[in-house]
């Protein structure tokens, strides 16, 4: 009979357990030093290795010749535990054996010494399902069991366990397995099964598994049933996922406010038997990736996607503000929550996409706030538009002139990845060479007159605060500085030389100008401020003495 992959490739030693090194190292040391506890509690999300580690620990504790803390797998006890002939290892499912009578059977059995092994080990899975009476009956035995007994409790919902149980166990928290560790493991399994699995497909399986290696192996099993040559298309077919192409096309429809095109895509996906609830969840995850790209310094280390998908996501981010993305996620999340409660899933998703592509139809507080923010942004920049025309406009790129213009469109859905324009935000480009610090030119205005007519710029503190959205280090360079306005120039006075060093680079200079524009609605040329030197009065000391005498009424004769 065929054995599923997650059972066939269940780790046999601690070294084979993926992503739980903080636990396996501790357990191996306890085996080596013979410092085994009488009660363990393994907690964590599904598929992270709790039951696997419990079985390895039970085997290692009884192994006749353990190797570096792991069972040898070759001795009589290891082979007996593996084939089930050693009855001293008891596995119990608390979901089906949850009453006090089941616990009383265990209490009676622990009094007898093990038949063949060194320890009698009880592995109680889903222990949170035990009744209150069963927990109370187990307390005394769990606190002071016989020397030949070890309890290993496993649960996914540790918050449901009484504190009296928690205090009697050595607790180990299993983490979600990192995507790269899952991908490496399933690539190894695929190689052993003589199956061709691409790296991108392995990462997609790891992303769908959401930190659970068992789920990843189950999905790999379904993929093998479809084809022995597994790529991303096969994984999406097996998992019922929407092709990433459709996600980017739907996103483009939302950005371009093309409701009709969005409805056509939904109809096509529905005709292909795509699960609408899963598609909605995929859209939320897609916009979450855009949110992380907009807000995290190194999003590539967090996101599970191929390099080409990451480039496409960066392109979309150039047409959206962070507020827009969060609003999209909120509308889709609310639609996902309502799915399965009366209205059809397709209808809920269609209503959500209509709200996003025509926000004037959404009367929620969040939609109103988004439209109000758009109006404030437009008024501050001097753009005259109607409220219904800008429900949620995308941010203008750095360096673009301030003028009234139609909303920028995202890449058309019909274009291919190669045809889509690549994002080239100026702040992402490395400056070739620093230019000289900007100086007010004599052609525009006499420099000395420019300095003499300079007036304090009251919004400078707000501008420095706004620079934090670009870079905290840039903002810090201008702390304590002052600015003066004069004939279209904004002249900056700073004791920190780093501030003027930043102004030498075109991209940093443009970023600062954009912040000033957002705060004031005006565009300035930037330059350093040098206060004009005061004219020195040259006075004769003798003449000063004569003047003082004259002021006192004493006549002074001129010689």
Tell me what you see in this structure.
The protein is built from 24 helices and 11 strands. It has helices at residues 5-8, 21-32, 50-62, 76-83, 100-109, 132-143, 163-166, 179-192, 199-209, 213-226, 232-239, 244-255, 259-271, 276-295, 307-317, 322-338, 345-357, 365-380, 447-452, 460-466, 472-477, 497-503, 506-520, 541-551; strands at residues 39-44, 89-93, 120-125, 149-155, 170-174, 196-197, 229-230, 455-456, 482-486, 489-493, 525-528. A hairpin with a 2-residue loop joins strand 9 (482-486) and strand 10. Helix 9 (199-209) runs parallel beside helix 11. The chain is elongated and about 120 Å long.
Instruction: Tell the overall outline.
Output: elongated
Estimate what percentage of residues fall within beta strands.
5-15%
Major sheet characteristics:
5 strands, parallel
Which percent bin holds the helix content?
40-55%
Number of strands: 11
Roughly how many Å apart are the termini?
132 Å
Name the quaternary structure: single chain
* Helical stretch tally: 24
Biggest sheet strand order reads 2-3-4-1-5
What is the overall pLDDT average? 78
Structural class given helices, strands, pairing?
alpha/beta
Low-pLDDT residue spans = 385-411, 413-438, 441-445, 534-538
């Amino acid at each position: 009979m065929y054995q599923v992959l997650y059972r066939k490739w269940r780790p046999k030693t601690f070294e084979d357990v993926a992503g739980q090194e903080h636990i396996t190292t501790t357990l191996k040391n306890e085996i080596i030093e013979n410092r085994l506890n009488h009660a363990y509690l393994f907690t964590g999300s599904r598929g992270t290795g709790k039951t696997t580690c419990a079985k390895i620990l039970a085997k290692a504790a009884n192994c006749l010749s353990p190797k570096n803390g792991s069972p040898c797998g070759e001795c009589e006890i290891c082979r007996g535990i593996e084939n089930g002939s050693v009855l001293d290892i008891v596995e119990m499912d608390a979901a089906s054996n949850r009453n006090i009578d089941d616990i009383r059977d265990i209490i009676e059995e622990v009094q007898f010494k093990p038949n063949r092994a060194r320890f009698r080990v009880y592995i109680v899975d889903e222990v949170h399902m035990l009744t209150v009476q069963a927990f109370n009956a187990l307390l005394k035995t769990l606190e002071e069991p016989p020397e030949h007994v070890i309890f290993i409790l496993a649960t996914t919902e540790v918050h449901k366990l009484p504190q009296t149980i928690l205090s009697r166990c050595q607790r180990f928290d299993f983490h979600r397995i990192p995507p790269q560790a899952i991908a490496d493991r399933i690539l190894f399994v695929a190689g052993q099964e003589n199956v061709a699995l691409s790296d991108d497909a392995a990462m997609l399986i790891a992303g769908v598994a959401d930190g659970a290696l068992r789920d990843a192996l189950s999905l790999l099993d379904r993929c093998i049933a479809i084809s022995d040559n597994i790529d991303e298309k096969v994984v999406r077919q097996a998992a019922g996922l929407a092709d990433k192409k459709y996600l980017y096309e739907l996103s483009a429809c939302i950005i371009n406010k093309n409701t009709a095109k969005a409805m056509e895509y939904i109809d096509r996906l529905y005709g292909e038997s795509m699960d609408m609830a899963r598609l909605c969840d995929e859209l939320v995850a897609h916009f979450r990736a855009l949110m992380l790209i907009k807000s995290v310094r190194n999003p590539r280390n967090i996101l599970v996607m191929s390099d080409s998908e990451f480039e496409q996501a960066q392109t979309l981010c150039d047409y959206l503000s962070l507020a827009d993305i969060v609003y999209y996620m909120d509308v889709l999340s609310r639609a996902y929550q309502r799915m399965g409660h009366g209205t059809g899933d397709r209808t809920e998703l269609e209503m959500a996409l209509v709200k996003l592509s025509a926000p004037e139809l959404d009367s929620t507080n969040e939609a109103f706030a988004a439209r109000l923010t758009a109006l404030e942004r437009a008024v501050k920049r001097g753009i005259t538009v109607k409220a219904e025309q800008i429900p949620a406009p995308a941010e203008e790129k750095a360096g673009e002139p301030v003028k009234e213009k139609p909303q920028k469109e995202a890449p058309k859905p019909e274009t291919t990845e190669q045809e889509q324009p690549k994002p080239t935000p100026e702040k992402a480009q490395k400056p070739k060479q620093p230019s000289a610090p900007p100086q007010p030119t004599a052609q525009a205005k006499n420099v000395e007159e420019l300095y003499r007519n300079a007036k304090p710029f009251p919004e400078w503190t707000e501008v420095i605060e706004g620079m934090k959205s670009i870079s905290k280090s840039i903002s810090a360079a201008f702390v304590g500085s002052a600015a003066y306005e004069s004939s279209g120039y904004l002249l900056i006075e700073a004791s920190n030389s780093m501030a003027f060093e930043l102004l030498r680079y075109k991209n940093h200079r443009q970023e600062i100008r954009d912040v000033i524009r957002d705060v004031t609605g005006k565009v300035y040329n930037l330059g350093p401020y040098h206060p004009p030197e005061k004219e020195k009065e040259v006075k004769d000391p003798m003449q000063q003495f004569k003047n003082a005498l004259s002021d006192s009424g004493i006549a002074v004769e001129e010689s």
